[in-house]
TrEMBL record:
It comes from the Bacteria. Keywords: Cytoplasm, Glycosidase, Hydrolase. InterPro entries: GH (IPR017853), GH13_cat_dom (IPR006047), Glyco_hydro_b (IPR013780), Malt_amylase-like_C (IPR032091), O16G_dom_2 (IPR045857). Belongs to the glycosyl hydrolase 13 family. It comes from Simiaoa sunii. One of its GO terms (cellular component) is cytoplasm. Residues 13-420 form the Glycosyl hydrolase family 13 catalytic domain. SMART domains: Aamy. This is Alpha-glucosidase. GO terms for biological process: oligosaccharide catabolic process.
Amino acid sequence: MDKKWWKESVVYQIYPRSFCDSNGDGIGDLRGIISKLDYLESLGVDVLWLCPIYKSPNDDNGYDISDYRDIMDEFGTLADFDELLEKAHEHHLKIMLDLVVNHTSDEHKWFIESRSSKDNPYRDYYIWQEGKNGNPPNNWDSNFSGSAWKYDSRTDMYYLHLFSEKQPDLNWRNTKVRAEVYDLMKWWLDKGIDGFRMDVINMISKVEGYPDGEPIPGSKYGNRLPYVMNGPHVHEYLQEMNREVLSKYDVITVGEAPCTSVEDAIKYTGFDRQELNMVFTFEHMDVDSDNGLKWTDKKPDLVELKRVFSKWQTGLNGVGWNSLYLNNHDQPRMVSRFGDDGKYWKESAKMLAVCLHMMQGTPYVYQGEEIGMKNMVFHNIEECNDIEAINAYKEYTSDGRIAPEDMMRYINRKGRDNARTPMQWNAEKNAGFTTGTPWLKTNPCYTEVNVAAQEEDPDSILNFYRKVIRLRKDYPIVVYGSYELLYPEHDKIYAYERILGQEKLLIVCNFAGEAMDLEIPAEFVEKSAKLLISNYPETKITDTLHLQPYEARVYHIEG
Ligand code: NOJ
């Protein structure tokens, strides 16, 4: 397999609003990130992915961009960005920006022009359709509840918004739109940034004719997914983007691609395809949903999680590349979701790190994950900030589909605000995130869960992450080895091998809060495999491993 720096990298994701506030306004900013570069370098990560930092009215916290070539006021200035980029490079950290071009803000000048009249030169930058007898053009639902179409009285037509009303979808069929996007990408790349994470990039091509979607039970809307995901021209557009822009720079690219199969992902990431390096897929994030519905408190199913990961690991091996993540700014905290954030908090956070980082693909660490940050308790919907949760709460409770107290329980389990509470730097006021009032409440667990305390403790989750990240650098098998699942039906243990020529790794992770025995493949005992890492004190290798609650071990045999 070809060696590439982005295959050997670990990415650290920053949600700038919640990372570090340098000026006391309660909102994280670029100078805050600059002040933490030593810390970030010390983790051993290679790339920083910054969630959107561009000008935005913040209807969806920056995923609604009103100017692609300027910085959000709260975050600082372009001069701050230039300094961040330069200093990050001095710290051997690359910068990957979020590219949000499925939609803009309705306050972007293109949309302001577009909505002003039917013959405006920007009209065709967006997707406008006539209504049907006073109703929207079709029954598609939006990702953030309600119809995906918004009526605009100025021209008596509807525009498409797959997300909020303030996020109108761009019309990628228009060559001018594509040229604008390539231009702004070059503008940032010429500044020296190192790559893009592309927001919902598999939604940029919609099926023409805008047919109605299958009705959604209990809702007046229909399912838009078959008509907007992985649409008819998406690969043509990405290949064009690659030809026009990406091929001219040595960069890392990851496309967010919900509802994507292994076959689709091979098309996006195939080594011979000239599209993207890797995609973020979502199948493993569905192991605790209810027939695709996120709002439930179903527990994750380990056998299903292993099946999904393994399908992707073997499906892309040698042909494309995986991204590896268990949480991000849209997902709850992984230790609360897949581990135990109570009694075995420390053990389970470490175990999850091992389980994920030893797979094939580029791992993503979401801010705070490296100290085991936990889900928050939101007592009522007024305490939440996230537009998805707020709209879903309104929609599901108002039509009686979900009782308000159940919906709050689901939001506490799955809501995006769980990941967006301020980063916990120390045990001082507001966890050291701000001297002002934080824009979202600080998780009370900060008195125990914080960076400063974990720096002091050699056995902390933080110091464990440093070791796990280091393994990827020291053992090329972690990057390039193939993957084989062991004991697929075991519902408490996730065990797999990595194989590179004669060399092997055995990864064993106990997902249960109780001790477990596991017989391991004989060759690891016969060849006196070396223990590379474990979250419990070292024990001797035996035919049957006696695993402690949430124990993880990695054994290595040389070729
Ligand atoms: C995916 C982003 O990760 C999410 O935060 C955002 O709300 C939507 N795309 C819309 O841009």
